[in-house]
Amino acid sequence: MDGKIVILTGAGISAESGLGTFRDEDGLWTKVPIEEVATPEAFARNPAKVHDFYNMRRVRAAEAQPNAAHHALTRLQTERPETVIVTQNVDALHERAGARVIHMHGELCRALCAACDHRWDAPPEMSPGAACPACGAPKARPDIVWFGEMPYHMEEIAGHLRAADLFVAIGTSGAVYPAAGFVEEARMAGAETLELNLNRSDVSAAFDAHALGPASEIVPAWVDEMLAR
Ligand code: APR
Q1: Which sites are catalytic (predicted)?
Q2: Scanning 81, 89, 175, 220, which has its CA 20 to 30 A from the CA of 70?
């Protein structure tokens, strides 16, 4: 099919690169409560604990390698440059596979000043009270969208969903909005919808078609089929 493809990826696309998901059996949120490390209140209450959590994830993400699913999406975007990849993931595996990507939940490799909104490349380990290089305030935080905060680039993403001819969700549980609602936005715009996942998700019923299996297998197979059309 011709037309604009909009792809949403979640933690499942990075699972085979060794990065944990959140809600699977041994997922991150089964080990540490969200309210202790992934809210603005948690950061205000105990910034050291929050920095430790993201320092551990930042180091792991830096050591991880893109897998065949990331490389397949880059191949698709190279052949079909109008393809948009929106990710909920905060790792840099799409970029390291050569893809252009919109990070709606922020990025582990970036830091944000809570005082002046300046953003810069985060050091491997951040600590409480680190100063902002722009305004000097000791207000550096991970540039991650926490629960209760507005995801990034929502206007741009809404525009892509309105123009989508095909919306594909890869490796996401559909447990968190607004990303979980993207399939409905795309359907209302007349797009076909496809879910690629290891298992069925909370929003599987909203998709026209599904392919079940590990992303490193089903994403390359789907890209091959798309490029052969
Ligand atoms: N291949 C394909 N899909 C997989 C694989 C795999 N190898 N392994 C796991 N999955 C799927 C699971 O079936 C599940 O649907 O990946 C999904 C992971 O779901 P979550 O752990 O909920 O991750 P995600 O959907 O990305 O979470 C969304 O929630 O905690 C917040 O901000 C965080 O961005 C995250 C958001």
Answers
A1: 105
A2: 175
